[in-house]
Records
---
Amino acid sequence: MHSKCKSVFNELNARKTDSLLVRGELEIADDCYLYHYVTGNVESWLPDEPKPQPAVFGRPGLSVFVAGSSFPKFELIEHMEAFRVQMNWAQIGAVRFKASDIRDPSLFEFHLVHDPHAFYREEKIVEQGPNHGMIVCLKDSEARVKLVQCCEPLERPISAD
């Protein structure tokens, strides 16, 4: 496993033990949907289709919000708007993946982790919520292109206006 992936796992494990609000972790079933929010900036999206640029998926730990029978229900548009405000983004869009695609070894070598734990960042509490998860591992250019191919665009973009 790449050192950047290990550092993400170390951070996730530290959240479990040092969390301000410890929640039980849930199994993310293959039939769950994973929603990833993308800034609405024009450069984040492909010009000719409603999908994000591959670079959007480059981080070793990619935040997703999980929807499935074991997870609390949430209203996507309301959740996106709250996230847009929290991140101070002018616009926001969303794509979704099937958990089974992310776990498919013929496509990716990723780990999918439920990460509901709050943590401190810059002396502020970051509350991630019970639906937060992470797609963990290094995403080379080939993997990022495959993520673009298997994602389903949902909302592009919602504006603060």
Note: The chain has one domain: 3-159.
---
Amino acid sequence: MWLDEERSYTPPMLEESARRPLWPLAWLCAALASIIALIGLAGLWWLAIPRTGGVCFAIYPAPPGCSDSRIPVAAGWSVGLVVLLIVNVWAALFRHRLRTAVSALSLLAMVIVAGLAYRAVLYA
């Protein structure tokens, strides 16, 4: 007959990788997302900010700084990039079970959105 006092209960142990998050990978994904966002924002506003003292040629798309209609478009895409950056950092640092897949997809989305934003502002 089994006595409960004789058997000690030990909870099942998780594997080491499941218990401890991979922080270096998470911080790397957050840093890559930040770098992509900064490069994208710099490119957007380099195109959008008007410059003085230069000749603007009548070509399409207009050279950087020669079209005032780019400012609202750059502002909208900037908000989108910042929101995507916040989602990417949140997924990398706080979603431990889905970190790798969500972070990889979010980084890919960041690159695609930054490219689309640059093209949209260029042709605005």
Note: The chain has a mean pLDDT of 79.
---
Amino acid sequence: MPGLTDSFARPAFYASLACMNALSPAYLSAIASQLGALSAFLGGFAATFLGTMLALGVRGKTASVAIGFAVCSSVAFIVAVVASTSLVAATHPQAPASVQAAASGGARAFMTLSFILGLYTLLSSLALSGWSRSRGTGLTTSIAGGLGIVLVTLLVVGAG
């Protein structure tokens, strides 16, 4: 059975890393704009979901974990929005060199990682949310959230 380190020995793995760095500024700006808009929407949803759970006064350990995931999701999406805005500004053709240098690599990494973290924590919060109501609702939300996590993982791994 191949181990995790086997994927690092493949030339295709290194080629994919090189390809990640070779994106044109126009393409990178378009991706950052899309991720920024999607992050703003999902962050608003996560914050609303959090507010609803707090307003309803859900109790219990599972509800507390779901609330914690909703908070992490909101924060992660806010970071993704700020990072994508920074990246769009840095990739603009008329951006000053200081802006381009300050926001290039770090903004891209923060945008990507916080967007993915936001997706996983939002889906986890949704998956756990039903357990505060009933076992049947908990099973339904867990299956739906788990399926979402699997699909997002397949898309993220396939895109890499």
Note: Confidence is low (pLDDT under 50) at residues 4-19.
